[in-house]
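Section 4.2 – Deliverable D4.2 (structural model, holo form)

The reporting period included a commitment to supply a predicted holo structure for the target in complex with pyridoxal-5'-phosphate. Inputs used:
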Amino acid sequence: MKPDPDKLLAIDKKHIWHPYSAMDSDLPIYPVESARGVRIKLVDGRDLIDGMSSWWCAIHGYNHPVMNAALTRQLDSMAHVMFGGLTHEPAVELAEKLVEITPEPMQSVFFADSGSVSVEVAMKMAIQYWNAKGQPNKQRLLTIHHGYHGDTFGAMSVTDPVNGMHSLFADTLAQQYFVDAPSCRFGEACSDNDIAPLRQQLETNNNKIAAVILEPIIQGAGGMRFYSAEYLRRVSELCSEHDVLLILDEIATGFGRSGKLFACLHADIAPDIMCIGKSLTGGYMSLAATLTTGEISRTISNGNPGVFMHGPTFMANPLACTAANTSIKLLLESPWQQNIANIEQGLLKGLAPCSQLESVKDVRVLGAIGVVELHHPVDMKTIQPMFVDEGVWIRPFGRLVYLMPPYIISDSDLATLTTAVYQVLSSL
Ligand SMILES: Cc1ncc(COP(=O)(O)O)c(C=O)c1O
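Output (structure tokens):
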């Protein structure tokens, strides 16, 4: 029997908190009945073309038969066992695959249950590493403005202080070092001026800094900014020069979204520690991983207290690992580079007319990400129903209306998405 949408909404409104929202909010919420391919079907019968991949995740679309079959098989053998003292094939297969496809120095894998947790883990790894090397003062992180690394306290401490509302949590939040984000855009050179603030911090405070943490090339939730690959390359060189580790948060960018399998490959560099998540499982369930080098994992393991201090209950959940193994196989066996290049062309062509609109400040595209930046924040109460009426699922935030569809989207569905963006923005 179909759920009654009014009843669902009434209970939802009464008891459930949605992401970054108020209880009992009057912003629209849409009950979903099912999702298949690039269509999200609402309980009221409407079909929406998905422009969001459920926040970077659903790269193969929804309800994929190969994913479903693999998960059903895994369910028949076990949904979960603890990872303390036990191991299993899905985790072993996944770790081996991740080591194979990530930059070569990545050799050791820690499975976490969400992106934010994998960032916490990365920060702890950096701190434990320096502690084991006899430098316990290196406990702080250096990063750039406009970053986003998650909502747990450690991750929040390296997220943009304004977007992350650091003032609300001032007495609890770890104090980290921030410098201006580079103004050199993707495809541009990086000048000495662009890199100067980060260089200065490293020169002055490297005895206190355990690691620099960055989203490589694409700053996501902090502004959908695409920055110069040369900047990233120079950051990597400066980190080596100043004995500071480089943590790259590829949680949003990993698995092809930027046109490369991992965004750090645009700069031809490898991090010391790397976080992946989101599309790792093709959007089926929550799983993340923190990878590091053999040298870092050995140093931590040989130092005091001789163990790495983290171990989540659902670590390496077999169902999630199976989803990841299947999703990676599907991705690597698909013409993903061609698919992303097609989407990039479709976004460039389809979003170009938006740059003529007075309300629009900038239009930018990289890989399977298209961004229309406005001069003023959107009013969600007005704009969200307009997109739904156009038959698309697009969820703007602040001044950003953006698209990052599943990689399997057809040219015509993509054109419907870009046309909807133009129609809605031009009628506001
Ligand atoms: C770059 C980046 N890091 C970390 C996170 C946090 O991941 P999660 O929401 O799975 O905790 C996100 C989520 O949007 C992200 O985009």
